[in-house]
Amino acid sequence: MSSFRTLFGHLKTEMQKAIVGYEGLLGDVLVAIFSGGHVLLEGVPGLGKTFLVRTLSQVIGVEPGRVQCTPDLMPADILGTHIVNENEHGRRVMFFEKGPVFKNLLLVDEINRATPKTQAALLEVMQERAVTTGGERHTLPEPFFVLATQNPMEMEGTYPLPEAQLDRFMFKIRVPFPDLDSLVEISRRTTGFTEPTMKSICTGAEILKIQKELAQMPVADPVAHYASRLILATHPEQPGALPEVKRYVAYGSSPRGLQSLIRGARVWAAVNGATSVSTDDIRAIAHVALRHRIILNFEGEAQQVKVDDIITKLLEQIKTPAMQAA
């Protein structure tokens, strides 16, 4: 896995030619890519979320597609539609005109500005990697990733994503506001008339190959047991649940949360040069894998409880095998 570790570092370095700061964020996005998962980026407008996705598509050498979400966007605008056209014999027949979703890396910009009907059009796309329309099933190209951006819920004209939609994202990554040094560097890099030239470090075929290799990384039973206990601890009805979970949480993580933990931890372990997954790898990605899968109840929303704080307390409460031995 040393070659993968080197490749991962080269990808981050190349992206940082165009993107200032955000080292941890770039690492989390790349972990999701090599895990085969989708990513939801949340942050206020102007933080470079869209630019990040465009830069990523150039660096990993895949074909990008883009959907700009608005309230009047229809499912056919994303998936494609049947149109009447003439074939080579001059007869009028129905053809399926593919939408922008038929690309390797789909940017869904401001996803929470689309109506629930249009948001639901992405459910099959993200889970099955296919589009079914007019009785026909069309398979999407491989590899396929959805990177969606969304504005905070407090902003005007947003439609909250349903729980089933959120659950299909492997990671939810918050894009923080840049610090002073980063702002100064942004002003230097982006106020001229030239943009940095990105070069492709790998290809889609190489990503698929690496994904299959990483999927073979062993996960010991105690590590899987720890990740499973972490998932169960997010449910308020479980015996021994934390007081904060019982009081503020309506629904805990689904089994997809466990899958995201294991798959992401494999990549994280490989990045750090390990040959097997440890509980530290699980803990390292717990926040990005679980923060959108823990749904607060009315009291939690009213008290403005932060889900990240609940996850932090769970990590303190759920002991790893090493902690139990000590």
Structural account:
The protein has two domains: 2-194, Rossmann fold, CATH 3.40.50.300; 211-321, Helicase, Ruva Protein, domain 3, CATH 1.10.8.80. The chain has a five-stranded parallel sheet. It has helices spanning 2-15, 23-35, 49-59, 75-79, 116-120, 122-128, 163-167, 180-190, 204-214, 221-232, 243-248, 255-271, 279-284, 286-290, 298-302, 307-317, 321-325, and strands at 39-42, 64-68, 80-86, 92-98, 105-109, 130-133, 136-139, 145-150, 171-174, 249-251, 295-296. α10 packs across α12 (255-271). The longest helix is centred in the last third of the chain and has 17 residues, at 255-271. It contains 17 helices and eleven strands. By secondary structure, the chain is α/β, with parallel strands linked by helices.
Describe the SSE topology.
Elements: H1 2-15, H2 23-35, E1 39-42, H3 49-59, E2 64-68, H4 75-79, E3 80-86, E4 92-98, E5 105-109, H5 116-120, H6 122-128, E6 130-133, E7 136-139, E8 145-150, H7 163-167, E9 171-174, H8 180-190, H9 204-214, H10 221-232, H11 243-248, E10 249-251, H12 255-271, H13 279-284, H14 286-290, E11 295-296, H15 298-302, H16 307-317, H17 321-325
Parallel strand pairs: 1-8, 1-9, 2-5, 5-8
Antiparallel strand pairs: 3-4, 6-7, 10-11
Structure, briefly:
By secondary structure, this protein is α/β, with parallel strands linked by helices. The chain has 17 helices and eleven strands. Helix 10 (221-232) crosses helix 12.
